[in-house]
Amino acid sequence: MRPEVVDAERSIITEEMRMIMDDPMRLVDDQLDAAVYAGSPLARFICGTPESVLGIGRDELVAYRDAHYRPERTVVVVAGAFNPAVARRLVKERFGRQKSLGRKPAVASKVRPPLDGPRLKLLDKPTEQAHLALGFPAVRLGDSRLPAVKMLSVILGGGMSSRLFSEVREKRGLAYAVWSHCHTYEDTGHFSVQLGTSPDKAVTALEVAIGELRRIATEGVSVAELAAAKEFVKGKTLMAMDDPGALAEFYGKQALMEGKVETLKARIAKLQAVTPAKVKAAAQMIFRPGRASFAAIGPFQDEAPFLRAIAKL
Questions:
Q1: According to the model, what pLDDT value does residue 68 have?
Q2: CATH of domain 119-311
Q3: Where is the Peptidase M16 C-terminal domain positioned along the sequence (predicted)?
């Protein structure tokens, strides 16, 4: 790890930061993380700050690598057409020379998103388009409620037939993009809704989206709607797993983050077992105004209209 290589990479990362600052759709996601996980490491931007990157040298990188990139923390996944015996031999040859420390290094303590009321982050920029992100604490990896939360996300904002897409974009023309997503980590997670709209429609678009969150928590979902969502997820998942890289990531992430591995069949079966009552319960658990975090990028200075919209949840 030569110092000149570190210096070159530092310049590349600094340029990546500039690109992110010019990409509001990506930047608003980082701003939401900073609000949801305020006070914890998950609130930090992944690429760091100009100051932190400038302060990291070769010695710091080597020390970090030696402490964390250890055999006892390594998962090697092989997927596709291969000879298992040859694969095991190659893994042993390439990875077996490094000695284990016999223990895992300390990791950050568990975090919980703040629950002391709505947290807002407005980034005032003179843009023609506005980007909004609404987030709520949800579930971690391995939580028994995760399949229901995933189905909730699909029904709300998982495609062109989703509720948010239909109501916010198709029926009312309030946004050119709208979707939801369930983010999961080892010890925590959050549920997000994102919208791309025009600044003059931002508050109304947020109000309509929140109305859909309130409606699904109050009225739930029908058997037919849930069945359609299940088929959508099943088809999308099976198609994605035709790629060996995706299959390797599917199993590798489980082994690394959860310490256990479920087959694709078992994972799909858990999604198929979700009931309308479980989806409604997940919505009621997540969508509460006092637990909301919100981020917006656009020509905004006043938080009050957004706070009033969130209060309607």
A1: 84
A2: 3.30.830.10
A3: 56-231
Task: List the end-to-end C-alpha distance of the chain, in Å, as a whole number.
Answer: 52
Its CATH architecture, for the domain 3-95, is 2-Layer Sandwich (3.30)
Residue ranges of the chain that CATH labels 3.30.830.10: 3-95, 119-311
The model's pTM = 0.91
Q: Which two tokens stand for residue 165?
A: 């897409």
| SS3 category, 139 | coil
Q: What is the pLDDT of residues 14-59, one digit of tens each?
A: 999 989 888 998 999 999 999 999 888 889 998 888 899 989 999 9
DSSP letter string over 184-212? E-SS-EEEEEEEEE-GGGHHHHHHHHHHH
Query: If we measure between CA atoms, which residue out of 272, 311, 264 comes closest to residue 289?
Result: 311
